[in-house]
Amino acid sequence: MNQTTDSSIVPTKYWHKLEDGRVQCDLCPRHCKLHEGQRGLCFVRENLNNEIVLTSYGRSSGYAVDPIEKKPLNHFLPGTPVLSFGTAGCNLACKYCQNWDISKSREMDTLADQASPELIARAAEQLGCRSVAYTYNDPVIFHEYAIDTAKACAERGIKSVAVTAGYVDPEPRVEFYQYMDAANVDLKAFTEKFYYKLTGGHLEPVLDTLKYIKHETDTWLEITTLLIPGYNDAEQELEEMTQWVVAELGPDVPIHFTAFHPDWKMQDVPPTPTATLTQARSIALKNGIHYAYTGNVHDEEGESTYCHHCGEKLIGRDWYVLSDWNLDAHGNCAKCGTPCAGVFEARPGTWGARRLPVRLQDFAA
C-alpha cells in the first residue's frame, strides 16, 4: 500500500460488513465489531465511512538504535545494531504491560515522530543498522505500515524483525510473515486462564502463530516468556510449556525467560527472583531445548550460548556486550563442529550495549 497524501489514515483490507450495519475487523482474533466512528481495542483501527482504516500510518512513538540482543534475539546477527520503533495502541490488554505508556496510549500526540517507510529504510542504512525492529507495541496493529517499511528496507538489504505477541488471524499472518526475517514472539503463559484474565486474549491463536512461523515460513523464530511470580512461574506449567515447544516447534527454537518488575496495573506483585529464571532455564534444557536464556537480570551464564553437543561456550554475553565467539565461519561450534541454529555471519557485530535515540527527520532528503 502506498500513501497518496500526507495523511496517517489509510485503508485496510482485513474486515467485512455485518448485517446490522457494523463493520468487523478481521486482523486479529478479537474481531472488534464497530459502528461508524468507533475504534477497536487497539485504538488505531477505526470504522470510517463503513470500512476499517489504520489511523497511525507513518507516525511513531519514537526511534532508537538498539543492540539486536535487546529484542531479545540471540541467534540473529549477534552484536549488530537494529533501528527500533513502534506506534501507539495494542490489541491485547495486559495488566502488567511494561511499555504501557506507548501500548495503552489513547493520545495520538504520543506519536511525535513522522516517517515514511522509505525514510526509515534510508535512516537505518545511514546508521549502519542491519535490521529494523517493529517493537515497543505490537506490529500486528500497524500491519500495513510495518509491511511497507519491510519492503522499503529489503530494497536496501536491511532485514525486518517483528517483536510481537503473535495475536493475529491466519490470513493477515500469512501476508505479514512474507516480509519478516526474524520474530520474537511473546508466549505470555501456557494456560488459557492467564491469557483470558491478564491479557484479555486467548492462548490457542498464539500457539497457532508459533507453529505457522516455524513450519510455514523462513522467518527466524525466538520466544520470550516474562515470568510473573504466582501467575505463570509454576514448575508444572514450565514443564508443559517447554515440552510443547520441543514437540511442536523443535529443540532449536531459543526461549528467553525474563524477569517481571511491578508495572501498570500489577504494581503489588514482587519482581521475579533470579532463582525462578534459573529454574525455568534448567527445566527447558532438561526437556531438550537447545538454547534457553535468562533476561532482565545480570546472569552471564544464563545470557550466553552453549553448544548443545559438547557444552562449549559459543557466544559469551555480559548484558548486551558480546565476549566469547567460538563459531566458525559457517555458524558451527569451533570445537566439535555441531551447527548452532540461527542466522550468523563469519564475525559478530560490535555495537555493544549502546542505545541511540534518533530523530528520523534528520535523515530526510
CATH fold label of the largest domain: TIM Barrel
Strand order of the largest sheet: 16-15-14-13-12-11-9-8-20
Mean pLDDT: 94
Shape summary: globular
Going by CATH, the homologous superfamily of the largest domain would be Aldolase class I
Following the backbone from N to C, one meets helices and strands in this order, namely: EEEEEEEEEHEHEHEHEHHEHEHEHEEEE
Biggest sheet character: 9 strands, mixed
Rg, nearest Å: 20 Å
CATH architect. name of the largest domain: Alpha-Beta Barrel
**What amount of the residues lies in strands?**
15-25%
Helix content: 10-25%
Continuous helix count: 9
* Weakly predicted, low-confidence segments: 1-6
Strand segment tally: 20
The count of domains is: 2
Topology overview:
Blueprint: E1 10-11, E2 15-17, E3 23-25, E4 33-34, E5 45-47, E6 52-54, E7 59-60, E8 62-67, E9 81-86, H1 100-103, E10 113-114, H2 117-126, E11 131-134, H3 143-154, E12 159-164, H4 170-177, E13 182-186, H5 192-199, H6 204-216, E14 220-227, H7 235-248, E15 255-259, H8 274-286, E16 292-295, H9 300-303, E17 305-306, E18 313-318, E19 321-325, E20 356-358
Parallel strand pairs: 9-11, 11-12, 12-13, 13-14, 14-15, 15-16
Antiparallel strand pairs: 1-6, 2-3, 3-4, 5-6, 7-10, 8-9, 8-20, 17-18, 18-19
